[in-house]
């Protein structure tokens, strides 16, 4: 878990900020761990957040109200079993790309994507997907998904 103030001195005078937190032993990560980026409650940049090759199992423990300006997120090679709607709401409300390859995802609930309305690319290659659940046909008008990659499931 990051130490409070960890990201406080990072320059926010950029259009895109890249945080490479890959190949560590992170087990839990929440948006409030990045509150040092939240200068005066305003983030004027987009974020590329690389959390690949860690030990993250889920995002269920997150009760944060901070929404990160993530544009691209890579959570490949973790131990994730599912991605719920709260995850999309907190981390990906305006994201365009999510890469979640080589995890242990067993099902995809399209309803969760309602909270990631800007998501255009979703890559779930090399998981354990055996179910794709579509609860409501009406939500297709609410999402921007253009590419769904499901190789080797």
Notes on the protein architecture:
The protein is mainly beta and 153 residues long. The protein has a six-stranded parallel sheet, with no helix packed on it. Helix 1 (85-91) links the parallel strand 3 and strand 4 (97-99). The chain contains one helix and eight strands.
Topology record:
Layout: E1 16-20, E2 46-50, E3 70-74, H1 85-91, E4 97-99, E5 107-109, E6 121-123, E7 131-133, E8 147-149
Parallel strand pairs: 1-2, 2-3, 3-4, 4-6, 5-7, 6-8
Helical content (DSSP H or I, runs of 4+): under 10%
Strand order across the largest sheet: 1-2-3-4-6-8
How many β-strand runs? 8
Q: What is the gyration radius calculated from CA atoms?
A: 15 Å
Major sheet: 6 strands, parallel
Q: Which structural category fits the helices and strands?
A: mainly beta
The fraction of residues assigned to DSSP E strands is 15-25%
Q: What's the total helix number? A: 1
Uncertain segments of ≥5 residues (pLDDT<50)?
none
Identify the quaternary structure here.
single chain
| N- to C-terminal distance | 31 Å
Q: Order of SSEs, N→C?
A: EEEHEEEEE
The residue-averaged pLDDT reads 83
Global outline: globular
